[in-house]
């Protein structure tokens, strides 16, 4: 019976070590692709919604406010419209909040021959918005 207990203790220790090593490896793999940026408390951010990747889709919820930095990549944020809605998010799922009131509206009059110029102009605007 003592031999069985010793074997179980050895197997338990081995399983614990393997789980810890696996967890560390997964964390390193996930964090290696993260952007090298930091958020500060009271920053306004937008949260990416998983599954929506196109630039013009409503792929972000905004605005959220950073309440606390939990570690180098995780932050506790609250919804500015509903203070009870608290989330813990990874920095990869955030973008800086851009106040839409400060975006300048541009009026463009297009004639038949200006279609190519309009496409180039819209391409530049989309790059600014999506960056």
CATH architecture of the largest domain: Roll
CATH fold category name of the largest domain: SH3 type barrels
List the strand order in the largest sheet: 4-3-2-1-5
How many separate structural domains?
2
> What is the string of helix and strand elements?
HEEEEEH
Using the alpha-carbon principal axes, give the shape: elongated
Low-confidence stretches: none
Q: Which percent range fits the helix content?
A: 25-40%
Largest sheet: 5 strands, antiparallel
C-alpha termini separation: 65 Å
How many helical stretches?
2
Q: Whole-number average pLDDT?
A: 81
Q: Strand percentage, roughly?
A: 15-25%
Whole-angstrom Rg:
24 Å
Q: Can you identify the CATH class of the largest domain?
A: Mainly Beta
Beta strands, count: 5
């Amino acid at each position: 019976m003592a031999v069985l207990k010793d074997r179980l203790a050895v197997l338990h220790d081995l399983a614990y070590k393997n789980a810890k090593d696996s967890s560390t490896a997964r964390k390193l793999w996930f964090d290696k692709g993260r952007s090298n940026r930091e958020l500060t408390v009271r920053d306004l951010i937008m949260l990416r919604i998983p599954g929506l990747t196109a630039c013009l889709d409503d792929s972000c919820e905004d605005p959220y406010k950073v309440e606390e930095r939990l570690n180098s990549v995780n932050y506790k944020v609250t919804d500015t419209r509903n203070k009870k809605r608290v989330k813990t998010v990874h920095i990869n799922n955030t973008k800086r909040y851009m106040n839409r009131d400060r975006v300048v509206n541009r009026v463009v009059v297009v004639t038949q021959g200006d279609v190519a110029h309009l496409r180039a102009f819209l391409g530049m605007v989309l790059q600014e918005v999506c960056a």
